[in-house]
Design a protein that fits this description.
Layout: E1 13-14, H1 17-27, E2 34-38, H2 44-50, E3 56-60, H3 63-72, E4 78-82, E5 101-106, H4 112-120, E6 126-134, H5 135-142, H6 152-160, E7 161-169, E8 174-175, E9 182-189, H7 198-209, H8 216-219, H9 226-231, H10 245-255
Parallel strand pairs: 2-3, 2-5, 3-4, 5-6
Antiparallel strand pairs: 1-8, 6-9, 7-9
Length: 259
């Protein structure tokens, strides 16, 4: 029976074989990889990866798709974690000694940002991540200071990861086709993130970009004095999008020095 994509789960199933092969080439799987896929859907990417990877883990919320996966794949090839990826503890996936998780997925557009922040908690356990996301989101993730798309998502994810937009995927590669272009992003955890308290950095960045048209002195009024902003190496009349990651970290460390 044909599975009907469900809007509430943000389902758009990738079916273009050329795109599937391009993603697989970018991931470059090896047989012993500790590979976990978020939202396998109709298993097009799963099938592609299982041609190389000996055993895979998948996290799937849709019960009908879970039943379909259970019917089509043996447990020695595929471990299915039925549940919400936003709540899933990726640290529970068994990983061979000396290895780290490799995470892949066509992430639902409606939960992409919260899911990326959830996954960031597990960055020390991860070798790399390759995701299909809305092109606009990937552009925000990889944006550099001075860009109109540079913002909270850029700063917080760049603190944790080195990232690159690999290639764009058109709507017609999916069923049903989304209304926007998609893109593949590679995310490799930074070995040693700049030392700072994450919650404090998040608070500073959130306040800074909540009024991004104002100068940083006004955005951060009540949190920092102008002297503190200058001490962090920032021009007080710069706008939030002109300020780099290291400078935001410096501000966070003024509030709460890194342990």
């Amino acid at each position: 029976m044909k599975h009907v994509a469900r809007k509430r789960f943000g389902q758009n199933f990738l079916h273009d074989q050329h795109v599937l092969e391009a993603i697989t080439d970018a991931i470059a799987p090896t047989p012993g990889d500790a590979m976990v896929e978020i939202g396998p859907g109709l298993a097009a990417m799963t099938e592609q990866l299982m041609r190389t990877v000996t055993h895979m883990h998948v996290v799937e919320l849709d019960r009908d798709l879970v039943a379909r996966l259970e019917k089509n794949y043996s447990r020695d090839k595929l471990t299915i974690h039925a549940g919400d990826a936003l709540k899933f503890d990726f640290g529970t996936i068994p990983v061979p000694a000396g290895q780290k998780l490799r995470v892949v997925g066509n992430l639902p557009y409606n939960i992409s940002s919260p899911l990326l922040f959830h996954l960031a908690q597990f960055a020390p356990l991860v070798q790399d991540q390759h995701f299909m996301l809305q092109k606009e989101v990937v552009e925000r993730m990889v944006a550099e200071p001075g860009s109109k798309t540079y913002g909270r998502l850029s700063v917080m994810l760049q603190w944790r990861y080195n990232m690159a937009l690999l290639f764009v995927v058109p709507p017609e590669a999916f069923d049903p086709p989304p209304k926007v272009d998609s893109a593949i992003v590679r995310m490799v955890p930074v070995a040693q993130p700049l030392p700072c308290d994450e919650a404090t950095l998040e608070a500073v960045v959130l306040k800074a970009f909540s009024q991004r048209r104002k100068v940083i002195r006004n955005c951060l009024a009540g949190m920092f004095t102008e002297e503190q902003i200058v001490a962090a190496g920032i021009n007080p009349t710069d706008r939030p999008e002109a300020i780099g990651l290291a400078q935001y970290v410096a501000l966070a460390n003024l509030l709460k020095p890194a342990a």
